[in-house]
Amino acid sequence: MNGFSWDWAFAWEVLPMILSAAKVTLLATLLGSIFAIFMGLVFALLRRSPSRILRNSIYWLVEFIRSTPLLVQIFFLYYVMPEFGISMSPLMTGVFALGLHYGAYLSEVFRSGIDGIEKGQWEAARALNLTTIDTYKDIVLPQAIRPMIPATGNYIIAMFKETPQLSAITLLEMLQVAKIIGSENFRYLEPFTLVGILYLVFSIVAAFGIHQVEKRFPKEGFTLK
């Protein structure tokens, strides 16, 4: 019965170790989010390329990434890519895998946001002889960003909750550290509960922050200069 009783002393003892691992989890999420946003935008813009071959190639690449499990992609990057001379640390592999996987999903969010811009905006840009880059930078993206914030935020939170999969390649994130603590002390209740609480707290804080960003973002967008 003792294994199912809460031990506050043990919980306080292991909390610093779990909080230290939380830094790794948050770092992987932060870097993965930045990479995912970048890749999502790149995929979305390439899907609008005048080249039909490039459009189709990016479409099937995105579909392939979205249709295969994240864990398989993590294993492939960590264990198979070294066969081709590309080796990365567990953290960088996790960041790359998370960013690429969720970048494929975000590309659809960004593409729908860009497609939602009125046709007249594009025609006005052409009438002003704006370059493609200036059209996206000064007219399209500032207006498309606000509608994309909620879905982008949801995917980032989902990415955060997927970080335990990185333990499969020996990355010491929160859940992996909790498993190690549990196996060494034969007590799993406290470490797993603490990890669950931290995931809940971080997710709630992130959701609140995303909501505040959406509320404060001007509906008419802003000029990216």
From TrEMBL:
Which is a Pfam family this sequence falls into?
Answer: BPD_transp_1
Which SUPFAM superfamilies has this protein been placed in?
Answer: MetI-like (SSF161098)
Q: Which domain of life is it from?
A: Bacteria
Question: One GO term of the cellular component aspect?
Answer: ATP-binding cassette (ABC) transporter complex
Flavoprotein listed as a keyword: no
Q: Name one GO molecular function term.
A: transmembrane transporter activity
Indicate the segments forming the ABC transmembrane type-1 domain, all copies. Answer: 22-210
Please give, as recorded in its UniProt entry, the membrane topology of this protein.
Multi-pass membrane protein
Membrane spanning residue stretches: 20-46, 58-81, 192-210
Subcellular localization(s) per the UniProt record:
Cell inner membrane; Cell membrane
- GO BP, one annotated term: amino acid transport
Q: Which UniProt keywords apply?
A: Amino-acid transport, Cell membrane, Membrane, Transmembrane, Transmembrane helix, Transport
The UniProt family comment states: Belongs to the binding-protein-dependent transport system permease family. HisMQ subfamily.
Protein name as it appears in the record: Putative amino-acid permease protein YxeN
